[in-house]
Amino acid sequence: MPKEPDVLSLRITGPPPEDRYLEVRPIVNGRDFLTDVSAHVDGGPPYAGVGPGTS
């Protein structure tokens, strides 16, 4: 039986009025990927977000 393909979508949330950045969250098969990854690691998420102009 063939496996169903994974579905990737992006959830973009608008910032509060005092913030100028958007948040983009990868959603894989209906689950927030970053939440799932950080839930399995002690001491915080294993990824680092970098906003525009901070590199």
**Sheet having the most strands:** 3 strands, antiparallel
* Strand-pairing-aware structural class: alpha+beta
Q: Which blocks of ≥5 consecutive residues have pLDDT under 50?
A: none
End-to-end gap: 46 Å
Q: What portion of residues belong to β-strands?
A: 25-35%
Strand neighbour order, sheet with most strands: 1-2-3
Helix content: 10-25%
Arithmetic mean of pLDDT? 75
Please count the beta strands (DSSP E, at least 2 residues each): 3
- Write down the secondary-structure element order: EEEH
Q: Return Rg in Å.
A: 15 Å
Number of helices: 1
Tell me the overall shape: elongated
Could you give a quick summary of the protein structure above?
This protein has one helix at residues 33-39, and strands spanning 8-13, 23-28, 31-32. The protein is an alpha+beta fold.
Summarize the structure in words.
With 55 residues, this protein is of the alpha+beta class. Helices cover 13% and strands 25% of the residues. It contains one helix and three strands, in the order βββα. It has one helix at 33-39, and strands at 8-13, 23-28, 31-32. Strand 2 and strand 3 (31-32) form a beta hairpin. The protein is elongated, with a radius of gyration of 15 Å.
